[in-house]
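Title: Request for sanity check on Trafficking protein particle complex subunit prediction

Description:
We are preparing a figure and want to confirm that the structure record we downloaded matches what your pipeline produces today. Could someone re-run it with the sequence below and paste the raw structure tokens into this thread? We only need the token string, no images.
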Amino acid sequence: MSRQANRGTESKKMSSELFTLTYGALVTQLCKDYENDEDVNKQLDKMGYNIGVRLIEDFLARSNVGRCHDFRETADVIAKVAFKMYLGITPSITNWSPAGDEFSLILENNPLVDFVQMAVEAKFVQDTLKGDGVTEIRMRFIRRIEDNLPAGEE
């Protein structure tokens, strides 16, 4: 393997590790700042939404992925391009609902839990922190957010 290719792999791993350490530090600080788990979770939910919006904007700017035509194509792009770009992993897409508006992403390895310890009372449905073999993220289509693209940018 060339040095340049090796540096690219090291850079992605370092970037992923930096992200997970930063996330862990953020959660730790929120736990110190708020007295109960419900308040921590409310803050994480609010922050998660805002970060998600910015990640989508960054992803679209950096990836040159065109507009998805349906939710299945969206799932494919999320799993195969976005997760790979930001976390260095490719989850599998499973458990489609009959209506085609929900699916699960199965993460064999979840880099977000690399530096996390879980309290006994925390509750997860399926997560490697709980001893499960995989982390399962359930996605559901709620609505399309219409954007106003400049003319010629579809």
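Thanks, this matches our download. Residues 3-33 form the longest helix (31 residues).
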